[in-house]
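Q: Please design a sequence for this.
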């Protein structure tokens, strides 16, 4: 399969960026280069996205560990050491051949790296044989200069939700970052979405919307949604470690003025207090962030 499937091509043509997308697409490869391997080994956080093999729901989940828990163990192989808690992605991460998307994002340097491929469970976690490896620009990434591991933080009990409660709505409305997992017939992907707090709108207890800001013209996420509307969202509290994982369906809307928005309908959510052991410093918002219309 080429760099782009039919869904991404359809969106590129609709927006008129096919030539630019072809240029950017040349940066995608299968090899984990030396600089990418060095970047991975410094990260305490990896976000993984996949479809549950039983229900078919797409989820995004945050995995954490001491730097080195994610590392390149071959020219096209990334290995991850994980604990026992995987939430709604537990079955996917234990199933050989699962198509997964991953993103390692470092708020300290505003760098991100994506690696998508096929999963193999291992004795200590899992490995991914890469189909796509690439980096993105720092646009819309908020800088967080440091992190710590607070003593005594213990994950709370996860709660399954069919609609957003007040704390979940508050987390979304205050978010400056979330992660979007999508799938297509040949694979999976996780992307980063960032903006000033208020850029994600809660339009009902089961519906969200956010603007699709101008990016790298590849349209991997929107292209996937064109082919398959299943999606998973991950919101995290960078201070308390609380996570909100959502699964449902999403669709992109294209306005005559060239702006775009995505609307998401919730099927199920997991709310886990103190799920992550990391506490990050307050953000310095990206200068690329457009003003958020919090009243929309």
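A: Design:
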């Amino acid at each position: 399969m080429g760099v782009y499937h039919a869904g991404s091509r359809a969106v590129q043509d609709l927006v008129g960026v096919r030539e630019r997308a072809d240029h950017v697409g040349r940066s995608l490869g299968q090899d984990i280069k030396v600089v990418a391997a060095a970047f991975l080994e410094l990260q305490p956080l990896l976000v993984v996205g996949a479809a549950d093999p039983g229900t078919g729901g797409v989820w995004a989940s945050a995995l954490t560990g001491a730097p080195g828990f994610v590392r390149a163990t071959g020219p096209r192989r990334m290995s991850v050491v994980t604990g026992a808690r995987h939430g709604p992605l537990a079955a996917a991460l234990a199933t050989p051949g699962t198509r997964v998307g991953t993103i390692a994002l470092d708020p300290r340097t505003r760098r991100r790296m994506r690696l998508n491929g096929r999963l193999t469970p291992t004795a200590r976690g899992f490995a991914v044989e890469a189909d796509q490896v690439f980096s993105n620009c720092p646009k819309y990434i908020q800088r967080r200069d440091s992190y710590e591991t607070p003593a005594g933080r213990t994950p709370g009990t996860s709660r399954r939700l069919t609609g957003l409660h007040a704390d979940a709505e508050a987390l979304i409305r205050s978010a400056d970052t979330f992660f979007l997992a999508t799938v297509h017939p040949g694979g999976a992907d996780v992307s980063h979405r960032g903006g000033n707090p208020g850029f994600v709108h809660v339009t009902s207890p089961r519906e969200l919307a956010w603007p699709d800001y101008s990016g790298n013209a590849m349209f991997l996420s929107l292209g996937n949604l064109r082919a398959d509307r299943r999606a998973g969202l991950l919101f995290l509290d960078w201070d308390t470690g609380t996570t909100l994982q959502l699964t449902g369906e999403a669709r992109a809307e294209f306005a005559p003025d060239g702006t775009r928005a995505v609307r998401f309908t919730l099927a199920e959510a997991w709310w886990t207090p103190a799920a992550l052991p990391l506490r990050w410093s307050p953000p310095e918002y990206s200068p690329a962030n457009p003003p958020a219309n919090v009243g929309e």
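Q: Thanks. Anything notable?
A: The chain has a mean pLDDT of 94. The first strand starts at residue 45 and ends at 51.
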